[in-house]
Amino acid sequence: MNTNLAMLPLLFLLLASPAAALVQDFCVADLKSSDTPAGYPCKSVTSVTVEDFAFAGLGAPGNTTNIIKAAVTPAFVGQFPGFNGLGLSMARLDLALGGVIPLHTHPAASEVLFVAQGTICAGFISSGANKVYLKSLNRGEIMVFPQGLLHFQFNSGKGPALGFVAFSSHNPGLQITDFALFANDLPSEVVEKVTFLDDAQVKKLKGVLGGSG
Questions:
Q1: Which residues fall in the annotated binding site for oxalate?
Q2: Could you tell me which residues are annotated as the binding site?
Q3: With a threshold of 0.70, does the pTM exceed it?
Q4: What is the tens place of the pLDDT at every residue in 68-86?
């Protein structure tokens, strides 16, 4: 598969993404400073090079030897400073057979998924009515996930799957529902009350995901 050709539709999506107007040509992130709601402070123009506008990190497969059989390789502002202030970021999704990106949300961005290899079943859940929008996507197809809504992806094919996602923010944020409930020290009795799960189920999930309490 020619991954470069597969990426072309996603690149056009990125170019069409709206971003806040800049008062200068660019603002490469100074990662030595702190991030703010408006982004990182700008790196001195005199120290900016072409390497600040190129990123090779999405070219290599991620390690899918883990509990979810999947890997996410980010190209957010922390990895790619050239995205700073442009309202853009990307990531690579590698999903082994049976791999899943668990139910999660990006509080600060909408997302577009482009399937480059295999078959990925993807969906999101609306607020209010909790309506599920679910679709199986094949190579070359895309799906959009509105900002802040719970969504997921999993490999529904017979071999490995590869996807690339684009976000409408240089730092989209991430909260994985399972980790938020079971991978911390939230007391088991509280989790039981808010999820309607029994004690054995909660403790099992906490054990699997490294939680306590």
A1: 106, 111
A2: 104, 106, 111, 151
A3: yes
A4: 999 999 999 999 999 999 9
Distances in Å between the Cα of 130 and the Cα atoms of 43, 135, 161 are 43, 16, 28
- Nearest-angstrom CA–CA distance, 99 and 71: 9
Which amino acid makes up residue 119? T
- The per-residue pLDDT for 3 is 58
Known binding-site residue numbers for Mn(2+): 104, 106, 111, 151
> Residue by residue, what is the 3-state secondary structure of the chain?
CCHHHHHHHHHHHHHHCCCCCCCCCCCCECCCCCCCCCCCCECCHHHCCHHHHCCCCCCCCCCCCCCCCEEEEEECCCCCHHHCCCCCEEEEEEECCCCEEEEEECCCCCEEEEEEECEEEEEEECCCCCCEEEEEEECCCEEEECCCCEEEEEECCCCCEEEEEEECCCCCCCEEHHHHHHCCCCCHHHHHHHHCCCHHHHHHHHHHHCCCC
